[in-house]
Amino acid sequence: MELIAQLTVETGEARVTDLAARLGVSKVTVGKTIQRLVSLGLVRAEKYRSIFLTEEGKQLAEACLARHRLVRDFLIALGVNAEIAEIDAEGIEHHASRETLAAMEAFVSSRN
Hints:
Helices cover about 70% and strands about 5% of the residues. It contains 6 helices and 2 strands; from the N terminus they run H-H-H-E-E-H-H-H. Strands 1-2 form a two-stranded antiparallel ribbon.
């Protein structure tokens, strides 16, 4: 979801080929994931065409991006190198509870 939103901003569209290349997975894997997202009503996709987020998909992608930024900013506030924080945030954000994210947000906010 995050990458579809990012590619759409960067290039005006998200394509299976671009998603597969950025994620380091096969086009088949991306295709299966896209079909699941279509069935959930989060993306629109036509065969051999670009992939676009639905309104619900945009909201979810924005929430995911905000969570990612929060974790990244928290790690940076702890003194982690920005490049490392960006990479680590990708994994951490998917496993942190709401309580942990709220504590991270409070910590980051207190430093501003």
